[in-house]
Amino acid sequence: MGSKPRVKVKIKYEAELDPEFARWATSVPGGERLRECIQCGACSGACPMSPAMDYTPRQLISMVREGFKEEVLSSRTIWLCVSCYACTVECPQGIELTELMYALKERAVKEGLYLKGFPVPIYAQEFSAMVRAQGRSTEGLLVLRSELKLNPVRLLRQAPLGLRLLRRGRLPLRLPERVKDRRGFRAMLAALRTRTGPERASRAE
Questions:
Q1: Model pTM score
Q2: pLDDT digits (tens, 9 = 90+) for 69-101
Q3: Residue 183 belongs to domain spanning
Q4: What HEC string does 3-47 produce?
Q5: Does residue 84 sit in the same domain as residue 104?
């Protein structure tokens, strides 16, 4: 018989948990009913991305409630959520977990706790920055700016492919055309942030 696989277990003492993080999570959109979770696993069963996550939605809720701040904010789970709302639909307690995911992502970025080298948060930040500045985004510049931060060497290796795409007009690098009423656009974002809070407003940015 082959040797058993080694399993690493990290022990975290109660004193290392962050109760403030747990309180914060219940105060943001989507987390208001977090304490009512009965850990039935309906969210995990409904989530199409659950097999690729390091923590299932059910596990994530439990970790948030207990104050596992670093583990939650540095997880792949919050970035792999595709906002399909299946978890929200299936939850018998009416917990809007998808909404909470937006708040967790924003806090992970603000505190620099997102998983380094994982492309999703980098692309999300660059996309938001482009939309805030121009009102629109363009795929070519989004890829260029994101990959320069992620792996410049890999970007250089992709240069031959990029040149071929440029010649065929498949990789536009020009700045996106700005929205005509930029002042109105920014006022709309500011109003959205004021009315719904930064966690929900970030989705529109």
A1: 0.74
A2: 999 999 999 999 999 999 999 999 999 999 999
A3: 119-204
A4: CCCCCCCCCCCHHHCCHHHHHHHCCCCCCCCHHHCCCCCHHHHHC
A5: yes
